Structure to design on (151 residues):
């Protein structure tokens, strides 16, 4: 039994699996979301298809408001309950009964007024509000033994 690996170090290792350009994009998007959601709990999933960082009000995945989802082709911002969000500028993609997403060519996309409005709307409709104070933590939720190539 070795010493447990710190979540920050594990997270850095997950991101390092990607091509350098995608890894930079993941890191810059994470910084931008952390600024917008400083009290959120980051739930990290290194899954078969996607690497995901969920921004949640509690440690439960069902309390996730938005998440960064990355694969070898790029990064997206996923809205867990996006199907019910107002989307006057038609930024949201997807046709499922619940989830919607936005592609993130750069982290600057997260600062665009219509994207910020979608994030605010997602926060407003959340069943459990984000904590009003404090600093969010990072929790490694799952690591799949088998994964699609990240490069």
């Amino acid at each position: 039994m070795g010493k447990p690996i710190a979540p920050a170090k594990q997270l850095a290792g997950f991101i390092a699996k990607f091509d350098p350009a995608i890894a930079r994009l993941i890191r810059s998007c994470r910084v931008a979301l952390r600024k917008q959601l400083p009290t959120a709990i980051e739930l990290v999933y290194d899954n078969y298809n996607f690497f995901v960082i969920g921004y949640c009000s509690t440690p439960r995945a069902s309390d996730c408001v938005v998440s960064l989802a990355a694969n070898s082709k790029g990064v997206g911002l996923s809205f867990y309950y996006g199907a019910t969000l107002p989307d006057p500028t038609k930024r949201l993609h997807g046709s499922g009964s619940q989830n919607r997403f936005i592609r993130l060519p750069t982290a600057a996309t997260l600062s665009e007024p219509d994207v910020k409005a979608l994030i605010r709307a997602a926060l407003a409709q959340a069943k459990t509000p984000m904590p009003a104070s404090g600093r969010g933590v990072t929790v490694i939720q799952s690591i799949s033994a088998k994964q699609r190539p990240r490069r």
